[in-house]
Specification:
The complex is a heterodimer of chains A (about 270) and B (about 200). About 5% of the residues of chain A have low confidence. In chain A, strands 1, 2, 3, 6, 7 and 8 form a six-stranded mixed beta sheet that branches. Chain A has two domains: about 210 residues, Collagenase (Catalytic Domain), CATH 3.40.390.10; about 40 residues. Helices cover about 30% and strands about 15% of the residues of chain A. Chain A contains six helices and eight strands, in the order αββαββαββββααα. Chain B has about 200 residues and is mainly β. Chain B has a domain of about 140 residues: Porin. In chain B, strand 9 and strand 10 form a beta hairpin. The longest helix of chain B has 12 residues. Chain B is elongated, with a radius of gyration of 21 Å. Chain B starts with a helix and ends with a strand. The chains are: A alpha/beta (about 270), B mainly beta (about 200). Chains A and B meet through helix 1, helix 5 and helix 6 of A and helix 1, strand 1, strand 2, strand 3 and strand 4 of B.
Chain lengths: ~270, ~200
């Protein structure tokens, strides 16, 4: 029994994930497409748009799509139409007033979903060793509807990474695009630096994506648990009601059986 | 919400109907104490690529044993992975399991379990700010400020050695069994005390 009590007071240390903003913004629809800007060029990063395309699916599937407690579904959306200034512009988020007052800067055009591009304007990156930045640039109330990921094409730092590290960098930036901030946990994908041996998400990442995009009864994967847009208020879906009724009925039967058992115990003891 | 409340009230009012037969079907009441490992071999736990295989997450629970026929039993149980607090209690995480197993006693000392459960993972965000490294500078990020839950159905398998009034059990939970890309495995090691065996 001593071991049990020891277990109660010992548990693994936890860090904590953070969010990009204080209102917990996330995409409203859990099915989010990740696109490549059709007119992007990544000469210093030594990529073409097809190489970039090859990084997106593993960044989605090896990381964010693997969390069963989250209903997020990221998919490769292919190529977008050309976006003005995407390769060279000093690009501002619509809420970044310090950037907008710069005469040389332009507010990045709103996009739908997540768009990835390379950009060679060093002013967008706070140093040549910064691999990429993410600019959530389209909101509807508390919902993100669009975000742009810019890979640093003004230095060779991205080109020097292995393919798996490039996938990790894209996955990290996608994490920002879907609403997550940084964490102190060096094992987490959302740690601010790249980790050489990045294999999967850390615990913080899994908790964070489950907070922003929680799964609601998936029927072991058969139902999908998709957060499809519904006109019903939360919790009023037929699926949810069915489960609640089943659970309540089971509990009621078990309580009645327990009462009987306790009664018979009382009788036998008297 | 109103619909759910009405159903719960009706269900509770039906309690006496189940009590007509004075003989209880429950033959065992047991209490669990153990440690839960979430997502075996699928969570990175260090910066050199190590994956988590074991976690110390204290878990308590209560279960019932209802004999069915031959050596089969219906074994419903409720377990609670005790609250894990993160970063000065900015986030509190509770995991609850409502499970039902069909147990088969292969021998008097060995029980196999097959069942299903609902995993309810609740996260209470306590709000607040955090200054984090962000490239060559720092940025302010935010802790969650709401209470949100994930619900999953799991396929559960267990093997239990019965030792008089105690047992040791390895209980596994498979998430998303029908969706390969999302499938994950968790497990709990339980030491169980049978109060009414």
């Amino acid at each position: 029994m001593k071991i049990f009590f020891l277990l109660l007071i010992i548990s693994s240390p936890l860090f904590a994930y953070t969010l990009n903003n204080n209102f917990g913004a996330s995409f409203k629809n859990n099915e989010i497409k990740v696109y490549i800007a059709g007119n992007t060029t990544c000469s210093t990063a030594q990529l073409n748009i097809y190489d970039l395309n090859d990084l997106i699916t593993p960044a989605n599937d090896n990381f964010w799509n693997r969390v069963p407690t989250s209903n997020i579904r990221l998919s490769n959306g292919g190529y977008t139409d050309a976006i003005d200034n995407i390769n060279t512009g000093r690009l501002c988020a619509p809420t970044d007033n310090d950037c907008i007052v710069d005469a040389a800067a332009t507010v990045i055009p709103p996009v739908d979903g997540i768009v990835i591009a390379c950009n060679n304007n060093p002013d967008n990156f706070n140093g040549s060793n910064v691999l990429a930045v993410t600019i959530p640039n389209k909101f509807s109330g508390r919902d993100i509807t669009g975000a742009v990921i810019l890979i640093n094409d003004s230095s060779v730092v991205f080109a020097g990474l292995s393919k798996s590290d490039k996938i990790g960098v894209i996955a990290h930036e996608v994490g920002h695009a879907i609403g997550l901030g940084h964490t102190d946990d060096t094992a987490a994908l959302m740690y601010y630096r790249t980790v050489k041996q990045r294999k999967t998400l850390g615990e913080d990442d899994m908790r964070g994506v489950s907070y922003l995009y929680p799964m609601k009864l998936d029927g072991m994967g058969l139902l999908g648990g998709c957060g499809t847009i519904s006109t019903k208020p939360p919790g009023a879906s037929g699926k949810s009601l069915f489960w609640q009724m089943s659970i309540t009925l089971t509990i009621v039967i078990l309580i009645s059986e327990l009462i009987k058992l306790l009664r018979s115990k009382t009788r036998s003891s008297t | 919400m109103k619909r759910h409340l009405i159903f719960i009230l009706v269900a509770i009012s039906a309690l006496p109907a189940f009590a007509d037969d004075p003989q209880s079907s429950i033959k065992e009441i047991y209490f669990n104490l153990g440690t839960h490992t979430e997502y075996y071999n699928a969570v990175q736990n260090d910066d050199s690529g190590g994956l988590r295989k074991f976690d110390l997450a204290p878990t308590i629970g209560i279960g019932l044993g209802i004999p069915w026929k031959n050596n089969f039993h219906f074994l419903p149980e409720f377990n609670w992975v005790l609250p894990q607090t993160a970063e000065d209690s900015h986030i509190i995480i509770n995991t609850f399991m409502l499970r039902g197993d069909l147990g088969y006693d292969v021998y008097g000392w060995l029980r196999l379990r097959l069942g299903t459960g609902i995993m309810w993972q609740n996260q209470q965000g306590r709000a607040g700010k955090s200054t984090q490294n962000n490239g060559n500078s720092t940025s302010t990020f935010y802790y969650p400020n709401e209470n949100r839950s994930s619900l999953n159905n799991t396929l559960d398998l267990g093997i239990e050695t019965l030792l008089d009034q105690y047992s040791i059990r390895l209980q596994t939970y498979t998430y998303s069994i029908f969706k390969k890309e999302q499938r994950q495995y968790s497990y709990t090691i339980f030491l169980t005390y049978f109060w009414d065996k």
